[in-house]
Amino acid sequence: MGINNLLKFMKPYVESVHIKKYAGKRVGIDAYSWLHKGAYSCSMEVCLDMEGDKKNRFLQYFMHRISMLRHYKITPVVVFDGGSIPKRKANRDLAMEKLKEGDTDAASELFQVACGVGEKVMVLAMLSTSELIEVVNSLEMLNAYSYIVESCEHNPSDGAPTDPAPYEADAQLAYLTSLETEKGGIVAIISEDSDLLAYNCPAVVFKMDRYGKGEEIILKNAINVAGRKPSFMNFDRELFTGMCILAGCDFLPSVPGIGIVKAYNLVAKYRNLDRVLSVLKLEKGKVVPEDYPTAFRQALAVFQHARVYDAASKKLKPLNPLTPELLQGDHGDLDFLGPDLYPSIAVAIAEGNLDPCTMEPFNHFPQPGYKHSLSFADSASQLSTQEEATGSMQEGCFTVVSCHKTVKKRIRVADSFIDLIGDMPLDATKSSSEGKQMTVISEEVLNESETSALKKLGFPSRNEALAQKEPVPLRSTLNMPSNNPFKKRKRDDEVQLNEAMSIVEQASEVTEVEKPEIFSATQKSEESIDSKVIKPKGKRIAEKLSKQSNPKHVITSKVEYLVPNT
DNA sequence: TGGAGGTATAGAT
DNA sequence: TATACCTCCA
């Protein structure tokens, strides 16, 4: 993923930072990289679509980091995307084979691979769009949030979601860095993806840990600045991007024998990408694929001009203005810049309330057993009414959510999140009926032998789990680690608070730590706490549902539906 | 000899 | 993942 060896090559420009340097600022987050990391500890549960809390660990990881950013007064701008599926399926199938054979170790490893090393499978595998939006709305409990929803491409024949372009989220993040804060812009991006440097993002924080420490590369400290080696003196942004592509990127593998070092040397020597391509052909001969120059220019165009969603104009636009050469080349076919948007549906979805994958209403969370009853046409015609009802959008962070297809089992996202950041007592009814969850193997997913193999791993079958007299309460397994500085308590407990804060201080070498708001609230008695904060969970969620903040913006891909004229 | 590219392993989760 | 180590090659 990303540019081969770029981060290693850019080491002299890497600086240790703490995320608190962005206090008061808006920072973009490549959610994929977090979800991906968080998934390692629950790969099997995710792949098998098991019910139970272990599957939610990746969400805990994600939510913990979001709450940490909020602690440091950073406004997170979260961008989700999704991606390639076939390889994941293959690995999952292989893992199931191993399970049947009883080789649980091998199966576990394969499930991890199936969870997608280098593959953007996360969102599809883990969350439905509605669940993601549930996450987003849970985030609103910390601050006002709105979000963008980005769609996958749809198959024109049956309307089924297909793979999205692999670069939408990166390009969108890059675009946001070009905007002023007042217009929704961000000042930096937290990610693990070196592609963002090829997109010329000005500041990227890599390898951010749970305490907020990370490694930052600020592009303007490198490009056309003397003093450090490798020197990018006399480089411009296009040359830098060209170097990245030559070294091998997600869109175009490098020419055999060319790595980041040779790519740099070629660009530094000739300072002209056309010349570099000519020299490459001369020196490498037949090793250079015939269409490499074309593919190279297209990759360059993607990094410079990928289609992104512009919230102000509610339209897709190129990341940077298209050049006459691009408009004339390839007969004006610019599909490689990203999926185009069908205008009328773009506006409809951009106004919120419509799931771009299912074309069904988006104005509430589907409850268990809920079935959408509205057709797409009905949904679209309702939009204007819903807009009026929900009012104007809140200020806050944008969250881009990509959808592929819904998964059949809902994860108790909101509950998990409240356990992480909330200090609210469990709703009695909810906890006695729905609030207890067990690790249950889905019978739709597993056959008898598979179930038997899984039992060896300690997972009870559905029947066994249901027969258990004392199922494990949801809350007990969703607790954060004891040393989590953002863990919430139900009672005033100055000692625990101080302990937690000292952990934060020690771990992140922070000398002055502000008490996060969530901690301040816990210092009060329950009665005195703002009812908005401490309402029973079920009630609060219900309120949330009734308010259901609209997705602020929705990005869709090419959608071949007949839509009503708008 | 340095760089590319493949593989093994450690670390994180 | 990413880092280290190894082999191959120009």
From TrEMBL:
GO cellular component labels: nucleus
Region (Disordered): 473-492
Keywords attached to this entry: Acetylation, DNA damage, DNA excision, DNA repair, DNA-binding, Endonuclease, Excision nuclease, Exonuclease, Hydrolase, Immunity, Magnesium, Meiosis, Metal-binding, Nuclease, Nucleus, Phosphoprotein
Disulfide bond keyword on record: no
CDD domains linked to this entry: H3TH_FEN1-like (cd09901), PIN_EXO1 (cd09857)
Gene Ontology molecular function: 5'-3' DNA exonuclease activity; 5'-flap endonuclease activity; DNA binding; metal ion binding
Domain XPG N-terminal: 1-95
Main location, first listed in the record: nucleus
GO biological process: DNA repair; immune system process; meiotic cell cycle
Cofactor note: Binds 2 magnesium ions per subunit. They probably participate in the reaction catalyzed by the enzyme. May bind an additional third magnesium ion after substrate binding.
UniProt-listed Pfam families: XPG_I, XPG_N
Entry cofactors: Mg(2+)
Location of the protein in the cell: Nucleus
Transmembrane segments: none
The UniProt record lists the keyword RNA-binding: no
Enzyme class of the recorded protein, top EC level: hydrolase
Biased segments, Polar residues type: 476-485
Matches recorded under SUPFAM superfamilies: 5' to 3' exonuclease, C-terminal subdomain, PIN domain-like
Occurrences of domain XPG-I (ranges): 156-231
EC number: 3.1.-.-
Function per UniProt: 5'->3' double-stranded DNA exonuclease which may also possess a cryptic 3'->5' double-stranded DNA exonuclease activity. Functions in DNA mismatch repair (MMR) to excise mismatch-containing DNA tracts directed by strand breaks located either 5' or 3' to the mismatch. Also exhibits endonuclease activity against 5'-overhanging flap structures similar to those generated by displacement synthesis when DNA polymerase encounters the 5'-end of a downstream Okazaki fragment. Required for somatic hypermutation (SHM) and class switch recombination (CSR) of immunoglobulin genes.
Protein family: Belongs to the XPG/RAD2 endonuclease family. EXO1 subfamily.
Quaternary context: Interacts with the MLH1-PMS2 heterodimer via MLH1. Interacts with MSH3. Interacts with the MSH2-MSH6 heterodimer via MSH2, and this interaction may increase the processivity of the 5'->3' exonuclease activity. Interacts with PCNA, and this interaction may both stimulate the cryptic 3'->5' exonuclease activity and suppress the 5'->3' exonuclease activity. Interacts with WRN, and this interaction stimulates both the 5'->3' exonuclease activity and cleavage of 5'-overhanging flap structures. Interacts with RECQL/RECQ1, and this interaction stimulates cleavage of 5'-overhanging flap structures.
Protein name: Exonuclease 1
Organism: Salvia splendens (Scarlet sage)
